[in-house]
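Re-run with default settings, no changes from the original entry. Doing this only to confirm the output is reproducible before filing.
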Amino acid sequence: MARSRRLFKLLCLLGLSATSACAQSMNASMQQDLDAGKVVVVIINAAEHRGSEQYADWSYYLNEFAASTGDEFAFHKIVTDNGSLESCPPAYREPYSTIFMRRSERSFVYPGPILEPQVYEYVRRAYSGEPIPSEVLAFAPEEVPGNVLKVTRRASDGAEVLDCVEQR
C-alpha cells in the first residue's frame, strides 16, 4: 500500500498524470510535509523542454539542490491550470517560479527559473540558521512573512486547490 502511494506521488511529480486526483494527493502531501516541519519547495508550471539550455541549467541546479537537502526539504511540482494560485500575484504563477516555505516561518518566492545555485544556498542557509556569506546575499529571493500558500476547497466544485494566504 505505501509503495503504491509512493509510486502514485512519483508519477504525479513527473507529470505523467494531470488528473485532479494527482492535485488532491499532492495538496494533502504538501500539507503533511508542512505539518512535519519540512521546508516545502513548490515548483510552479515547470514543463520539460528538452534541447533548451535554460531548462537544462534550471533542472541541473534544482536536482543538485534536491539531492543535497536530505529529508529536511520536500519538493512539489504543481500546475495552475486547475485553478490553483488564482488569487496570487502573477509572478507566483510564472513558469518555473519557486516558493519555499516552512510552517510558522517566513517564505521565499523566486519568480521564473532559478539559474544561479546561490539562490538555493541562500534559502538553505536561511532555514538552517547558518550565516549567509556576503557573496550569496545578492541572490536572496523575495522574502514574505509566514506561509504563502494554503490548501483551500473551491466553492464551485469542492476540489482542493492551492491558493495564496492573504498577507497583512
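Strands lie at 39-44, 73-78, 98-101, 107-110, 142-144, 149-153, 160-164. Residues 20-35 form the longest helix (16 residues).
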